[in-house]
Amino acid sequence: MLAAMAGVGAAAQGQVTIDHRWSNTDAQSLIGLPMGSHKTIVDKQGNLKWSQWSLKRKPLDVPIGFSMQMDGELAIEGFSASVHADNPNPVKLEMESQTLYRERYPFVVTKLKAAGLELEEVAFAVDPDESPDLLPVTGSGGRAMDVVRVVVRNVGPEPRTFLLKLSGRSRNLPGHVNGRTLVTRGGELVADLGDVSEVPQKPLEEAIRQSTFVERDRSKDDALSLEVELPMAPGATKKLTLRLPYEYPATRKSELSNADGDVLLAKAVTQWDELWARGTKVELPQKELNDFYYSSIAYVLILTEYDAAGDLWALDGPAVYRQYWGRGEYFQARAMEVAGFLEPARQSVEHAFHIMNDDGEWDGPPTSGWPAWDNAGGNAGAVWDYYLFTGDKAWLAKAYPYLLRASEWIRAHREETTLEDVKGIPEGAAPVKRMLTGSKCRTEPVPELKPGEKTYWYGLLPWSYGDSGLPEGHSYSHNFLAAYAEKVAGEAAGVLGKTADGDWLNKEYSAYTTDIRESVRRSVGLETITTKYLPAMPTYPEGAYSQTFLAVFPTQIYSANDPLVTGLIERMEKEEQQGVPTNVAWAGPAGVWAGESMNMAETYLLRGEKKKATDMLVAAMNHSYTTNVWKEEILVNVDAPRACDTPHSKRANMEGTGDMPEAWANANLVLFLRDMLLNEREGKLHLLAGLMPEWVPVGKTLSLADAPVTTGGTVSLKVEHLSEKNWRVTVDPKGRTREFVAHLPVEGAVTVDGKAVAAKYEVPAIAAGKTAVIEVLAR
């Protein structure tokens, strides 16, 4: 079927503008290796910080935030001083800008400046001993390291002295100067300062004549600061390389690569190029969008990590959220899959098998034990997606027992809410609230019930962790995803021929969703605004509602065009700030959660509102920091009320809460950009559902190559804007017969393989081994 969906008449020749105008002021960035155990935060001054509390050495029972202690650090301070010994007046260099290397690679470029000197630091992770393809290595090579290539230039008319001060620690032990290294009392190498090289200038002879002083080390052995003075003639440029090997004894320093920063940087670039080349290829006319897509894939892969048992965790962040949530696993594993990285996705999904309780409970995060039932659906959905992308029935058979046990647990524990407020229940059989340590958001409202009236959460899962600014209680997002766990288990039973299981699973899913819909119907009666909307929880309709869109995608419990979803969108649009919704989590109406707003954009996409979808995407990207990373929430109006009275929501405007980078945000960016070009609905592939015509100016081409799809295999497509009115879309089903729906960027006369068709005209599916060429002549 070809549906020529309504677009705009003439394509504006505008470009997507990503200027990070709404980034949080307390931003931080990240470097690291994919699937590696070492993740290094780079602050806004270019200093490096890391935590030794990797998953391989975490205690058995730890709270969220076990990696927040940045017990490893290298402070890098640069100063510009006069050459006059009686009045040097050293001035500290201050950050001017911070970006990614070549706008794409997950290497942080910090530029600093003061008093005639300019400094560029490029911080990156590299494993010099490994092949160009990083992925199989797990990021744990014996001599993997962080590197900072430092380039300093004298751009002023007078000679200057560049003073470099390095100080740091590892495992909270300070680094002591030992020659040109910092070494802890425990013998661990914190940092090694390599040789200084002079970059030839024109004319070099003049620069040398003006260099009447020489480099000298200012610090003595055993000092806590490694200090070096460099002479800087006018126009001079000098390079230094700082090496920070991962948890490495100083006695083995000679075994480290002695390559300079340029060589190591080239190695790191090659490794990422080779890795990206293995995945889906996306080429948009807007370079900023391409760069954002590829850097986001990099962050999703960096924010994975092996634990002591060899399980790969998909993490939510490098510090506060260096932890695993099943609901996040769905989006992060799916992002790896659509990007073509099925192997790490499989490993992260299989990790979920090993954290299921013996009764089938799948909550999380696993080390804190908070009751959060949405994790069951996140894990189950990730299992099902991996099967859909690979078609590996043998693997599904191994995963199926976990799907079945989770569904059995959900079916059994829904009984708890059917017993609340029922007279005659023996005291010992009454339901309990599961333990939840830490501060609570607020109390769940309990409306008075009429005689014989059921609770508002009758038939839902028991009381649980509220999350995202909701009271602890019975949030709908937990139940939407838990029901989805039963749905995919039923579908898996059908694939595997387990008829008896499929019968009860399908009946249970129907009963559960009936109870959800009835609860929502009653909850809507508590709403006080005119347009009724899908609430976030039964008795607190004004609660934060970002994750309510889980009802639409992936669960499909409610249609994207359901009146209650429409009402929710209308309400959220009225409360938007800076192009994205407010009241989405802990900050309440005072803040935004840009990464989560892309789930709302996905709903727009399903509703056919591509302009709203792409506008929200661009607004979300403009809430990212200049290194293409997001903070979880950003406060935008501190005079507005908060959802929760917690310390982390009491900040200034444009400061953030949570962790940074937030893996969900970069995963959602990968998913949305892919879904706007290609997504699956009811067995058909929908092409270009979010493509605005101005995203492909005249004479430009957009392409998506080797994109995995849940209908099996991969698909490629190309969009060419041939002239002002003429567009061509070429679709390659990559050896499979496929049905598709094309959402064309403009209205007009449409042909498929040279034959004229009308909107919604049924055409034969693209046959295996064939391609389809769709052309449209705009009106």
Please give the structural blueprint.
Layout: E1 29-32, E2 39-42, E3 48-50, E4 72-82, E5 91-92, E6 94-101, E7 105-114, E8 117-126, E9 145-154, E10 160-170, E11 173-174, E12 176-178, E13 181-183, E14 188-193, E15 197-199, H1 204-210, E16 216-217, E17 226-232, E18 237-245, E19 248-249, H2 261-277, E20 281-283, H3 287-302, E21 304-306, E22 312-314, H4 326-338, H5 342-353, H6 374-390, H7 393-413, H8 415-418, H9 476-495, H10 499-524, H11 563-574, E23 591-592, H12 594-606, H13 610-621, E24 633-635, E25 656-657, H14 663-677, E26 678-681, E27 684-687, E28 701-708, E29 714-721, E30 726-732, E31 740-742, E32 748-752, E33 755-757, E34 772-778
Parallel strand pairs: 27-31
Antiparallel strand pairs: 1-2, 2-3, 3-4, 4-5, 4-10, 6-7, 7-8, 8-9, 9-18, 10-11, 10-17, 12-13, 13-14, 14-18, 14-19, 15-18, 16-17, 20-28, 21-22, 23-24, 24-25, 26-27, 28-29, 29-30, 30-34, 32-33, 32-34
Structural description of this entry:
Helices cover 26% and strands 22% of the residues. With 779 residues, the protein is an alpha+beta fold. The protein has a domain of 244 residues: Beta-galactosidase, Chain A, domain 5 (Distorted Sandwich), CATH 2.70.98. Strands 6, 7, 8, 9, 12, 13, 14, 15, 18 and 19 form a 10-stranded antiparallel sheet that branches. Strands 1, 2, 3, 4, 5, 10, 11, 16 and 17 form a 9-stranded antiparallel sheet that branches. Strands 20-28-29-30-34-32-33 form a 7-stranded antiparallel sheet. Strand 4 and strand 5 form a beta hairpin. Helix 3 crosses helix 14, helix 4 runs antiparallel to helix 5 and helix 5 crosses helix 6. The N terminus is likely disordered.
